[in-house]
Each structure stands twice: as C-alpha cells, then as structure tokens.
TrEMBL record:
GO terms, molecular function: ATP binding; ATP hydrolysis activity
Gene3D superfamilies found in the cross-reference section: P-loop containing nucleotide triphosphate hydrolases
Family: Belongs to the ABC transporter superfamily.
Protein name: Metal ABC transporter ATP-binding protein
Length: 241
C-alpha cells in the first residue's frame, strides 16, 4: 500500500501547490492523476518522491519511501529531459539496472539481457544503437518505459507520458503498463486527456491544490467533481468529459 498523510508542497515559503493531501492506494493498480492546469498534479507526485520542498509522511508497504528507492521509477515530462545528452537507446535503458547493482559494480550479461528484453517489450530493439536525440516523442517515451522495466520497479510514477506522442506508441505503452499492473506493480500517471480515463485507469485521483477526491473512476469522475475542479465550462456527458 502507498500511504500519503497530510502532504504539503510549498514553493518560495508561501505558494501552496498541495495542501494536506492524504491517500491510501492499494498495490497493483493504475492510478490516473487528473486536474486542471496548474492544480498541482506534478507537484503531488514530486512531493511524494521528495523531489520538492514538502511536509507530511509518505510510506510504501509500511516503510519510508527511502527504503524502496531502488525499486521506485520516476519518468518526468519530456520537456524536463536533456535530449542532447550523448547516450544510445541501449545505454539509456541499461541505466535502469544501475540501482540494483552493488557498489562499484558494472552491468554484466544479465543486465544487458534484461535491457534487450525490455526494449523488445516496447518494440524498440531495432533502435538500440540510436542516440536518444534522434527519436520521435513516442519512440523516446517507449524507451523510458523500457528503462522502468529494466529496473524491476515496484512503484512507478509517470508525468504526462502521453503528451505529444503518436497513437501507436500510446497503445504500446498503455498495454505494457497494464501488464505491469497485473504483475502487482503500482503505477501513478499524471494525465490530461479525460476521454481516456475509463479505458486507462483502475482508479482516479482528482487534484485541486490538494486531493479533492480519489477512488474508483465511477466515484471520482462525476459532473459535480469535474465542474468544481475544472470550472463550469467543462462539458460532461454520460460520465465523460
């Protein structure tokens, strides 16, 4: 279980991006994090990962997140990644094996086999020798998912993974993520396309400068909740926006 208690994220000592957020999330589900622009979706996951100034408590399976650091993956928004960094697709995915290596150990045959297997799962094995800067948005996002696979993560955070990618890559990625969830991996995805929530997620977290509501899609994805979070101009019909 991923448990968040009274999480606050405050920037510049006075800007509350997230206030008093509390959650209890079961393992092995895909959670969609939705909310209007600037409502704190990215700040929520960054606070949970201790990447930004925060107060509160976050535990996974009853222990501090620090105790699980080797098995936690975070995929930031593509705009936050330096695409000019001189690394091949293979080496980028191989980096996912580093957290589980011993001190001063280098990846060996087992790690390289795992890397190639992960690339095959996302259909990117033929691009293994390409520089990451040569890839399209969808191709690179697949590589980041492959790196997560190589890490053997128990908990995965993804920030807007479907923005600016092609339809085929989106299909491949969501298929792989659902397979990961079936294996007991817990996945949290910051997401903006409300038309996909029924197809993609087991449960939702609605963010509005804190956690406004969370639970099943049917419970959270209501006209009342959406209008309070997004404003009255949002169009809601038959449970969809």
């Amino acid at each position: 279980m991923l448990k968040v208690e009274n999480l606050n994220v405050v920037y510049d000592k006075h800007i509350h991006a997230i206030k008093d957020a509390s959650l209890e999330l079961e393992t092995g589900n895909i959670y969609g994090i939705i909310g209007s622009n600037g409502a704190g979706k990215s700040s929520l996951i960054k606070g949970m990962l201790n990447l930004v100034p925060n107060t509160g408590t976050v535990t996974f399976n009853g222990e501090s997140m620090k105790n699980h650091a080797k098995r936690i993956s975070y995929v930031p928004q593509r705009v936050d990644i330096d695409m000019t960094f001189p690394v091949t697709v293979f080496d980028c995915v191989l980096m996912g094996t580093y957290p589980n290596l011993g001190v001063l150990k280098r990846p060996g045959k087992k790690e390289k086999e795992r890397t190639l297997e992960s690339l095959k799962k996302v259909g990117m094995e033929d691009f293994k020798d390409r520089q990451i800067g040569e890839l399209s948005g969808g191709q690179f996002q697949r590589v980041l998912i492959a790196r997560t696979l190589a890490q053997h993560s128990d908990l995965v955070f993804l920030d807007e993974p479907f923005v600016g990618i092609d339809v085929q890559s989106e299909k491949v990625i969501i298929k792989v993520l659902k397979e990961m969830a079936e294996e007991g991996i817990t996945i949290l995805i910051v997401h903006h396309d409300l038309s996909k929530v029924h197809d993609y997620f087991d449960e939702l977290i609605l963010v509005h400068f804190g956690v406004k509501d969370y639970g099943s899609v049917e419970k959270v994805f209501t006209e009342k909740n959406l209008k309070e979070a997004y404003g009255d101009n949002i169009i809601v019909k038959a449970g969809e926006a």
